[in-house]
Design brief:
The protein has three helices and eleven strands. The chain is α+β, with helices and mostly antiparallel strands. It folds into two domains: 74 residues, Pseudouridine synthase I, catalytic domain, N-terminal subdomain (Alpha-Beta Plaits, 2-Layer Sandwich); 94 residues, Alpha-L RNA-binding motif (Alpha-Beta Plaits, 2-Layer Sandwich), CATH 3.30.70. Strands 1, 2, 3, 4, 7, 8, 9, 10 and 11 form a nine-stranded mixed beta sheet that branches. Strands 5-6 form a two-stranded antiparallel ribbon. The longest helix is centred in the middle third of the chain and has 9 residues. It is globular, with a radius of gyration of 17 Å. The two termini are 23 Å apart.
């Protein structure tokens, strides 16, 4: 007889929520949204990032999702300051040199604003004098704040970052602050 099935939860993390269950500073955490024992985030999303967070009760699976050597592709919708020209997008695709080394080549393309987008709380501070635009970026590694740093390195600071896919799992159909079993 085999052991119990691993549980995998897909959570649409709102802006401002930490990717952990406890915090000594009374900030919003996963426990404000998910009441499931013994599941842990596989990989992290910064407090100021939104979107898909995968949680599991299986330590091996957690390590596999989170560890860069397994190269689980992660796709983000990124609102950036300015309108990136072809050379900026080409730089993202080739790999960007950051302080901690060159990133692996990424998939990057200019896209229109997603039609499924929810309003962010608090709203993004958009400067009236500077246009903003959207990119879809897929990376296969997970350096700290990598997508934000990549965008800044090519001259387009990130205003909003939403993870929409991790490996085979997608955010599709999961409302902000909601979760479901994968």
């Amino acid at each position: 007889m085999s052991g119990p099935m691993s549980r995998v939860i897909l959570f649409n993390k709102p802006h401002g929520v930490l990717s952990q269950f406890t915090d000594g500073q009374a900030r919003a955490t996963l426990s404000d949204y998910i009441d499931v024992p013994k599941v842990y985030a596989a990989g992290r999303l910064d407090r100021d990032s939104e979107g898909l967070l995968v949680l599991t009760d299986n330590g091996k699976l957690q390590a596999k999702i989170a560890h860069p050597k397994y190269k689980a592709a992660k796709t983000y919708m990124v609102q950036v300051e300015g309108v990136p020209e072809a050379n900026a997008i080409a730089q993202l695709r080739a790999g960007v040199i950051l302080k901690d080394g060159k990133t692996r080549p990424a998939k990057a393309e200019a896209v229109s604003e997603p039609d499924w987008l929810w309003p962010r709380d608090p709203p993004v501070r958009v400067r009236k004098t500077v246009p903003d635009s959207w990119l879809r970026i897929t990376i296969s590694e997970g350096k700290n704040r990598q997508v934000r740093r990549m965008c800044a390195a090519v001259g387009h600071p990130c205003l909003r970052l939403i993870r929409v896919q991790v490996g085979e799992w997608s955010l599709e159909g999961i409302a902000l602050g909601a979760w479901r079993d994968a």
